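User: Could you check the structure of this?
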Amino acid sequence: MSTEATKAEAGGSSVEPEGGEVLGIPSFGDTMGGLIAPLTHGRTVAKEAVRLGGELARVVAGRSEVAPARGDRRFSDPAWSGNPLFQRLQRGYLAASGALTNVVEQYAEGTDDTQRVEQARFASTILISALAPTNYLPTNPAALKKAFDTGGRSLVRGLGQFVDDLRHNGGMPKMVDTDAFEVGRNLALTPGAVIERNPLGEVLHYQPVTEQVSARPLLIIPPPINRFYVVDLSPGRSFVEYALSQGTSTFLLSWRNPTAEQGTWGLDDYAKRVSDAIDTVREVSGSDDVNVIGFCAGGIITTTLLNHLAAIGDERVHSMSYAVTLLDFDFDARAQISAFSNAQLLRFAQSRSRRKGIISSRQMGAAFTWMRPDDLVWNYWVNNYLMGQKPPAFDVLAWNADGTNLPGALHCEFLDIFANNGLAKAGEVTVLGTPVQLDRIKIPTFAVGAVTDHLTPWIGCYRTTQLLGGESTFVLSYSGHIASLVNPPGNPKAHYWTGGTPGPDPRQWLETAEKHTGSWWEEWAKWLAQHSNGERPAPTELGSSQHPVLEPAPGRYVRDLPPG
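Assistant: Sure, the predicted structure tokens are below.
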């Protein structure tokens, strides 16, 4: 997995005072308050204080063997190992960080309060990351050298970028040079056309690249929280492009970026839009049914529709694929996110969504940025401000910075599902007039999780195979959340695991799973071929007389243009 992709995986670019409300993230004061419980365990704190005192004495004497973890790029400058002063500073910081981590983990071993434990871990991660000596000019040897070598110009550039971010980015360092990318110029380039549009979304039909295409078409449902082009990023890194290369007749639903005027749109509206898109694809392709793949929250929306279709005996969907989608939000599955599940905070977030009409992309991004502060905050702080360098130009980061809003009504429904684990409980959620009961969905399914995914942990993704009623296949990708989506074949470091029929225990499945070199896209393509109902000649024109071409892909909605 590339370093840049790793940096992008948590999403978001800034933190505003109200930003964490998307998942009920507490304020800074509340976050640091998560450390109160472990720090009041006097015996543990005293024990660690004594141990830390001894280690600091060894640091001063130059006898400490504390060292940064392998791969910790913060301390890559030779001064951290060659200069006695910087070496002692580094080791003192690492010793103190280890002591705080030990206090929190010993507290975790003695309590069953998962939420409080995750809040403490979240708070300690932020504090440890913020106090790193590399974040400050006097204690960052690389930044000091840069300032000396440039005659102070690096500091002048850094100050200018800091002021610009204060004015335009909520006081947070930019992750990417967004000027280097533009949708339709070097992003979302796969040839195709918009063939149908309504106020919620556009249906795109992509130009085949093979003489024969699958008789049963594929409809891609991206999440409404982001722009669709994460699955059509750039040539050679596009899921859409790969699907076409495999002879798949490919369509995609591009969601509109809502404003406060569309704040009443909810799950019923989004599920109905998916249903209408399915009918469009069926008419254009001439197929009675379709295959569908849902990415992230797109999988959640599609599942509520599948439940409704199963209840009324509607067989328009033949198979369903899930890419890093959680349907089960049990505490064990959501890991760090459980730190934000305080009921009072969730109610407050819902109230704000109803009042404001939308949740902005900046607010949603804030929910996850601080989960990985080293990669998503301080890395750019050092690069942009202390070193005076421009942020990198990278397509995944550009997509990540190009966020969308979420209607207040849909946001509230997502929060209810998150807080109450509503999809996994029969009858807890009702969509399109049908109570959700996942085991009535009997179609074949293909689910993908990612080993280092901190947003949709793979064990939670695996649970999808146990909740649905049809035959399930599970594949585990080697990477994190976003890197698992942008995962083209050809990366020599990429790998994935496949196994037999998924049983109740995901760890037992992994113990017997087979590791493969390559991308899960390849395994998915082989699975999809089994559900494609043979082949037919590729169409010479896009759309149909009933659904004619309206304009070229990538369409209007991905560029925030109004319906035309």
